[in-house]
Design brief:
The protein is of the alpha+beta class. It contains 9 helices and 10 strands. Strands 1, 2, 3, 4, 5, 6, 7, 8, 9 and 10 form a 10-stranded mixed β-sheet that branches. A hairpin with a 7-residue loop joins β9 and β10. The longest helix has 55 residues. The two termini are 104 Å apart.
Length: 416
């Protein structure tokens, strides 16, 4: 079938027929050729995309390409032969029924049509022959390679044209080779006759194949061989109504009953699909109503928590924005007064309010002077023995953990 094949289409075990049909359009695939094997037979299916029909054949006999080539003495098969599609030849596809006509149409659509007035003979390198036997209702599938050679020349001249020079050591003159063909075996002479000799309408590649000259067309089988028998024809791609069956024949009443049952099945399927669509729509509406109800409840709960859902939250007043920091600095300043006994500088706690003593109140130093007794000039205060106790000569010191628990830090050291 080369070169009009989808070589990029790779099939895996997990792929199904629907997957192949889905990618057939972008790849330009028009036909599927499927081979399958059961315990008893081998089947060959020919499908037309995208809407069918599907022809199912049973392969009664087959021979592989390698077996055909190995049985030939001189085979002719090379890659250049598969650069162009083969020439399709259908034989005995006469008025034997609609199934035969459908088979011929399917095989013709496998290959591009040929315009006999414009075709280039150099592009025809292969031939596909399909022969129908009306008695056995079988198809003979054969594949040949085409070769064109000139006729009317002696065997010695053909040998020279083929660039295969024979042994001329026993000849006195080259005319003996051209006239009699001495020294050549009989097997090298091809049996040409009226059945394969024709006049070429145009020049064909090959030595001596000139226009309006007699040439012989020779066929060499390259395989494969198949003997096919049509089993059934289906309407769709792999499924659908059976249009023809070789072994099962039904009356008109049975066909009508099958069609009625199929129509009822399709109606039930349509009803189930409609019911399923209604259920999906009902669930969607219910879900949407539940979502709206939930959002309304959330809004109502937020409104109750804030007091008035319509009133805007003005936020914290500007006066109270720094109140927390001011209170903290006031506590620090108070601790500094108790620990040191003096008023802190203004730049140490700028946000703390300056402590105002009430009128008539005495400070710590003034209270100490009034309570201190009068001493004469010669009297001195006795020195305390031992280490001073807490609260007697220096302020009480507390650790950082205690300060942290109290919510305030140590007062910063005064710069000297």
């Amino acid at each position: 079938m080369e070169p009009l094949t989808a070589t990029r289409l790779q099939i895996r075990k997990k792929n199904t027929l629907k997957d192949c049909v889905a990618v057939a359009g972008p790849l330009g695939v028009t036909h599927f050729l499927i081979l399958s094997k059961t315990e008893t037979n081998i089947y060959f299916k020919l499908m037309r995309l995208p809407g069918g029909p599907t022809l199912t054949f049973r392969i009664n006999k087959y021979t592989l390409v390698r077996d055909v080539v190995s049985s030939l003495r001189r085979h002719r098969m090379h890659e250049q032969q598969f650069a162009h599609p083969p020439l399709l030849v259908l034989n005995s596809f006469g008025p034997h029924g609609m199934q035969v006509k459908l088979m011929a149409t399917m095989f013709q659509n496998l290959f591009p049509s040929i315009n006999v007035h414009k075709v280039n003979l150099n592009t025809i390198k292969r031939c596909l022959l399909i022969n129908y036997n009306p008695d056995s209702q079988e198809l003979d599938f054969r594949h040949y390679s085409i070769k064109v050679v000139p006729v009317g020349a002696s065997r010695g001249m053909k040998k020279l044209l083929q660039e295969k020079f024979p042994n001329m050591s026993r000849l006195q003159d080259i005319s003996e080779l051209l006239a009699t063909g001495a020294g050549l075996s009989e097997s090298e002479a091809e049996p040409d006759g009226e059945h394969n000799i024709t006049e070429l309408p145009q020049a064909v590649a090959g030595r001596g194949n000139m226009r309006a000259q007699q040439s012989a067309v020779r066929l060499t089988e390259i395989g494969p061989r198949m003997t096919l028998q049509l089993i059934k024809i289906q309407e769709g791609v792999g499924e659908g109504n059976v249009l023809f069956h070789s072994f099962v024949h039904k009356t008109e009443e049975e066909l009508q009953a099958i069609l009625a049952a199929k129509e009822e099945k399709l109606q039930l399927k349509a009803q189930r699909q409609a019911q399923q669509a209604q259920n999906v729509q009902r669930k969607r509406e219910k879900r949407e109503a539940h979502r709206k109800k939930s959002l309304a409840g959330i809004k109502r709960a937020r409104a109750e928590a804030s007091g008035d859902s319509d009133a805007e939250d003005p936020g914290a007043p500007p006066e109270t924005e720094g109140s927390g920091q001011r209170e903290e600095e006031e506590d620090e300043a108070e601790y500094f007064r108790q620990a040191v006994g003096e008023e802190p500088d203004e730049d140490m706690f700028p946000k703390a309010a300056k402590r105002r003593w009430p009128a008539g109140a005495l400070g710590k130093k003034q209270r100490g002077r009034e309570q201190r007794p009068d001493r004469s000039v010669g009297q001195r205060r006795p020195k305390a023995k031992g280490r001073p106790q807490r609260g007697q000569g220096q302020p009480e010191r507390r650790g950082a953990a205690w300060e942290h628990r109290r919510g305030r830090a140590r007062p910063p050291k005064k710069a000297v």
